[in-house]
Amino acid sequence: MRTPIIAGNWKMHKTVGEAVEVARKLDEQVADSPVEVVICAPFTSLSALSALGLKKVKLGAQNMYYADQGAFTGEISPAMLEDVGCEYVILGHSERREIFQESDELINKKVLKALETGLKPILCVGETLAQRKAEQTTDVVVAQTTQGLAGVSAKQIAHVVIAYEPIWAIGTGETSDGKDANQVITSIRQTLAELYGPELAEQVRIQYGGSVKPSNIAEFMEQTEIDGALVGGASLKVEDFVGIIRY
After folding, report:
1. Closest of 147, 139, 134 to residue 102, by C-alpha
2. Which of 64, 76, 174, 247 has the fewest Cβ atoms nearer than 10 Å?
């Protein structure tokens, strides 16, 4: 039985004070939740959130570089993330792919380095609207999954979370319907079975992301292959995020 995982991606939102206030309230309100709860906050807030000693909520980062250290101005190493208490890190988010032109090869290097360091990557995959209209969704998502996991061992794969986020549904108010999302995620799990065998594939948690909110979370969590959500805007407000988690 896979434990559901609900992760909030705060993106470029919240000062340190705002982050601390929201995280403290969230930790109190979901203390008895059976699901795993993660906040992926901006780098500037991670140290302060770690110092809170959150009991239920775990910390994640939104990105990292694949080197241990060096002349990489503006980048953050996996060791730095571990040092401030991170357990998870989002890698390959569509905004990193689209805005910052990150390739599957670069994302794969980050995934491998995260696992080597002891961080759990949340690997994001998803198609554009043009790719969806061209009926390329499965091909795109399978390719991103396969390339993103290149070199990941059978022992490591259980520590990876995959997030299917159709790019056209992120921050737009548009969402994939539950059955459609489940179908794509089934393709991802079949890919994992081809790479690692059916037994290990069944252990990997696969989230849905893309304008998830309290009013539609049920539609996704009722599906057989969806193990949680990567939540953007709705994770910024305690009441909305709690509504999603409590479902």
Report:
1. 147
2. 174
HEC sequence for 94-118: HHHHHCCCCCHHHHHHHHHHHHHHC
Per-residue pLDDT tens digits for 53-69: 999 999 999 999 999 99
Give the burial class of 24: count Cβ atoms within 10 A of its Cβ; 0-12 exposed, 13-18 middle, 19 or more buried: middle
What are the helix (H) ranges across the chain? 16-29, 43-51, 78-83, 94-98, 104-117, 129-133, 137-148, 178-196, 198-201, 217-221, 238-246
Catalytic residues: 93, 165
Name the one residue in this structure whose structure tokens are 């910024």.
Answer: 236
**Residues 13-29: tens digit of each pLDDT:** 999 999 999 999 999 99
Q: Name the residue ranges covered by the structural domains of the chain.
A: 5-246
Q: CATH classification of 5-246, choosing from 3.20.20.70, 3.40.50.1820, 2.10.10.90, 3.40.190.10?
A: 3.20.20.70
Tokens of 58: 């775990």
Residue 157 to residues 23, 179, 223, 236, Cα–Cα distance (Å): 29, 25, 22, 30
Closest by CA position to 209, among listed 1, 9, 24, 40: 9
